[in-house]
Inverse folding.
């Protein structure tokens, strides 16, 4: 169990790094496009479209990592005043709800990828890229987020003080 | 089902979920899923929800958000922004509430770079708020001006929203852009006035701090070394956008790249600092974008249920005077703006407002200006103003949403005052565009 | 009475092309009184226009109007009538090319209803520039704002294609980020103020443009034959309405553009032919990546049959 959790943590860390790398690539891609236009008089076709795809990949690959790091915003007007068991119950409700919602999005996202591939939908922009390329990170990221929420819920049941839920 | 059932369901559900501490993004997702089940029906609807998650963030138009966050992050973690503030400290004598005033000034400068409030708030909130807290400023004064300055980003051109509003409304884009310059500057001045008066009345909110004495030669050297280079990045960005050499997205990316180069030149781009800036920028970017995935579908479902158009029709069917009608319309936008983001507000209200504008014989540019002030306000009105969440992301860790709501309040009132001035004296809004 | 929910790419009143959807709805509600009624739910406030085709397939709503080209991602080649030489681009319900499209769309879960446009060369896509143009060669290397429809032409003309949402075009043109654009002039070109930041309209019609109508296939199949007949009759009426509608709107727009100081540039006959050949072959080349050579030949034959009617 501990070994599994360590492997999972490594995966989440890797996802965080990939999201960060995409952020840098996002900048470099546009810089490259401008540089090419400046020096060769011609931009690079499709950079804007690829930038859009990178936005989705960055968001969903990084989402579970951000969740573990306590980075997702919550309204804490009420929960920041709770203590003891009440705080624990509120945190548990939040974690369980998060688990259910994210796993559901993962499932529907998976279906959406399959459907999109089956329908052969492409994005008719500069580059004809299958829509599924945009969609793939959504179920994957939602699944990891669901697992992270599930881990939070289990930890709360074990009596550990929740680090993230409701805190930020 | 009736539209008002959906409306109350949406808002009661969202409010409840948020209050029990569920992350905002998840709260939006859950409400959306219920809405989709009821309104879009079955699997096809859920498929559509996933598609709308993708299309709401897969656009290069939003790329300046991560870019400006990354730029702010680099400037902050490499110490460049701090040094800029230090140099200004060296030059300036004591001015009451200086850092808060500086925030508004910096916000106005940033506003000329971006039309997105969140990038501005992220940058100022991650640089100047910690500095103000360190100097013992009252928390509301360390946060409020940042929120206000974020609102400036939308009002002072370039403003993507002004162009959206003008094109949807069929107004002259050029005139709308020119017309918002005056209220933009006016708003910045009103913020400064408020800060100065507040600090005069409550000096403890912005404690005086010792400025170390430095020689003139050191001041000049530091200015050339630490103030002018980052300022020239800002000039580069402005020049890029205004000369047409680059789009806002491109300028943002170039400016961020220049920030990296600058930090490297200062010898401040150590692997540790690079890692810190990159990971904190990624965290904030992901947090903002994931909320955006939820807020877009939320607005769409609200429209789909007929709720948004029903409220609008109801409000405009009343038999009242011209000014009262205008104020009611603005109140309506204000209320909708508490919950949904600006582009959707424009798309939802303008088709219904336009016939009224024509029927009442109002100058569309006047209407557009008042509307812009209102839309800009929507980023900082609780509970769901996006700038508030951005602020939460970059504020010191012990900051609560309650702190942020309280800090926003005076700046919300200043915005409403500006709106009232624009409604009462249309000539202020119309003077500059009439010179075109 | 059957109730159908309609969503469009743009709101009527905002976009003249949206009148195609509104006119179709009015025709159906008049012809089908007591049997079928279309309720308009909204436009881009409901769903982003480019997401609407998939939403129609998903059954989120029943009837759709927008640009025929918006189907390019879901029904590749479904907008082939952009190159039609017939007065009614798809020849109207019952024509050979119309039935061909019905079949192509049905394979993707959509019932094709029609393409309503002005007569050939009326209400079409045109190029508008900030610099003088006397030949297609003048476009080479220039940044041009493209629509999904015109990107093939712009690339074939060796210009740099730039994608921008309509709201961004004014600023981009004003600052020279883009120096030309293509647009169906009849669709409220001057509403955006673009006449103030462009100088020349190249008087060379390119693609048919106009409005497309479609339905969710399951919903269509669930309708009684007499209701289906009513819808098809309404399509025919809308296609006739479109002819004068786009002609009038284009005349009005060109007038406003001239008043704002824009110049309508006529190309020399040989340059006009080069321009047209490039535009037409660029799009056929694209369709060649979707349809087999045999199918292309078949489509061209069906076009000629429709044009001869
Ligand atoms: Na701005
Ligand atoms: Na708000």
């Amino acid at each position: 169990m501990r070994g599994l959790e360590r492997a999972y943590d490594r995966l989440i860390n890797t996802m965080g790094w990939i999201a960060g790398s995409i952020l840098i690539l996002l900048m470099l891609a546009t810089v490259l496009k401008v540089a090419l236009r400046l020096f060769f008089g011609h931009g690079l076709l499709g950079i804007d479209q690829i930038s859009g795809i990178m936005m989705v990949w960055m968001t969903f690959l990084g989402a579970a990592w951000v969740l573990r790091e306590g980075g997702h915003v919550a309204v804490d007007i009420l929960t920041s005043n709770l203590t003891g068991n009440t705080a624990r119950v509120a945190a548990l409700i939040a974690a369980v709800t998060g688990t259910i919602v994210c796993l559901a999005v993962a499932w529907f996202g998976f279906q959406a990828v399959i459907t999109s591939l089956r329908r052969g939908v492409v994005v008719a922009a500069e580059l004809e890229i299958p829509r599924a390329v945009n969609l793939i990170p959504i179920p994957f990221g939602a699944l990891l987020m669901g697992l992270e929420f599930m881990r939070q819920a289990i930890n709360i049941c074990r009596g550990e003080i929740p680090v993230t839920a409701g805190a930020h | 089902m009736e539209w008002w059932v959906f409306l109350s369901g949406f808002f009661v559900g969202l409010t409840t979920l948020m209050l029990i501490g569920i992350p905002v993004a998840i709260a939006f997702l859950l409400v959306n899923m219920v809405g989709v089940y009821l309104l879009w029906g079955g699997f096809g609807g859920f498929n559509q929800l996933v598609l709308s998650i993708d299309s709401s963030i897969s656009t290069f138009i939003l790329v300046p958000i991560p870019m400006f966050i990354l730029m702010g992050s680099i400037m902050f973690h490499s110490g460049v922004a701090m040094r800029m503030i230090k140099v200004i400290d060296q030059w300036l004598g004591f001015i009451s509430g200086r850092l808060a005033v500086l925030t508004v000034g910096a916000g106005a400068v940033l506003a000329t770079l971006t039309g997105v409030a969140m990038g501005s708030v992220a940058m100022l909130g991650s640089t100047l708020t910690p500095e103000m807290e360190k100097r013992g400023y009252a928390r509301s004064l360390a946060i409020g001006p940042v929120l206000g300055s974020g609102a400036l980003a939308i009002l002072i051109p370039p403003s993507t929203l002004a162009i959206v509003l003008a094109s949807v409304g069929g107004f002259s884009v050029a005139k709308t852009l020119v017309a918002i310059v005056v209220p933009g500057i006016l708003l910045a001045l009103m913020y400064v006035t408020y800060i100065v008066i507040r600090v005069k009345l409550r000096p403890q909110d912005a404690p005086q701090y010792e400025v170390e004495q430095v020689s003139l030669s050191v001041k000049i050297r530091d200015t050339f070394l630490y103030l002018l280079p980052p300022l020239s990045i800002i000039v580069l960005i402005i020049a890029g956008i205004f000369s047409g050499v680059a789009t806002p997205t491109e300028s943002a990316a170039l400016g961020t790249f220049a920030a990296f180069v600058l930090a490297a030149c200062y010898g401040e781009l150590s692997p540790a600092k690079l890692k810190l800036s990159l990971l904190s920028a990624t965290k904030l970017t992901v947090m903002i974008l994931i909320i955006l995935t939820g807020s877009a579908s939320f607005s769409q479902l609200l429209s789909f249920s007929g709720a948004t158009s029903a409220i609008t029709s109801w409000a405009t069917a009343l038999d009242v005077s011209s000014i009262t009608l205008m104020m009611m319309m603005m109140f309506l936008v204000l209320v909708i703006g508490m919950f949904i983001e600006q582009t959707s507000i424009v798309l939802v209200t303008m088709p219904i407002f336009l016939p009224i504008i024509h029927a009442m014989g109002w100058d569309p540019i006047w209407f557009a200006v008042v509307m812009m002030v209102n839309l800009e306000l929507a980023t900082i009105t609780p509970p769901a103003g996006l700038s508030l969440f951005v602020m939460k992301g970059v504020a010191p860790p012990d900051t609560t949403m309650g702190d942020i709501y309280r800090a926003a309040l005076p700046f919300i009132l200043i915005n409403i005052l500006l709106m009232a001035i624009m409604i009462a004296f249309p000539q202020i809004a119309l003077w500059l565009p009439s010179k075109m | 009475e059957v109730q159908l929910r309609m969503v469009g790419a743009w709101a009527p009143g905002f976009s003249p092309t949206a009148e195609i959807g509104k006119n179709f709805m009015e025709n159906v509600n008049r012809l089908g009184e007591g049997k079928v009624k279309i309720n308009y739910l909204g436009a881009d406030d409901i769903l982003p226009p480019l997401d609407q085709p998939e939403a129609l397939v998903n059954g989120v709503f029943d009837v759709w109007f927008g640009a025929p080209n918006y189907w390019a991602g879901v029904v590749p080649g479904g907008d082939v009538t952009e190159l039609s030489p017939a007065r009614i681009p798809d020849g109207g319900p019952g024509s050979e090319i119309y039935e061909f499209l019905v079949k192509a769309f049905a394979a993707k879960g959509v019932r094709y209803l029609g393409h309503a446009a002005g007569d050939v060369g009326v209400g079409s896509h045109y190029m508008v520039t900030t610099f003088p143009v006397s030949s297609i060669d003048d476009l080479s290397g220039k940044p041009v704002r493209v629509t999904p429809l015109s990107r093939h032409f712009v690339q074939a003309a060796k210009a740099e294609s730039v994608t921008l949402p309509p709201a961004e075009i004014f600023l981009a043109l004003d600052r020279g980020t883009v120096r030309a654009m293509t647009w169906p002039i009849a669709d409220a070109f001057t509403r955006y103020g673009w006449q103030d930041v462009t100088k020349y309209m190249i008087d060379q019609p390119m693609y048919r443009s106009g409005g497309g109508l479609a339905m969710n296939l399951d919903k269509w199949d669930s309708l009684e034959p007499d209701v289906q007949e009513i819808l098809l009759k309404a399509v025919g009426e809308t296609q006739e309405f479109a002819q004068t509608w786009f002609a009038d709107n284009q005349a009005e727009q060109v007038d406003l553009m001239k008043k704002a100081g824009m110049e309508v540039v006529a190309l020399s006959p040989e340059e006009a032919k080069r321009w047209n050949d490039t535009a037409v072959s660029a799009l056929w080349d694209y369709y060649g990546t979707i349809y087999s050579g045999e199918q292309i030949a078949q489509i061209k034959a069906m076009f000629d049959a429709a044009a001869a009617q």
The CA atoms of residues 33 and 53 of chain A lie 16 Å apart. Chain A touches chain B through 60 residues (CB under 8 Å).
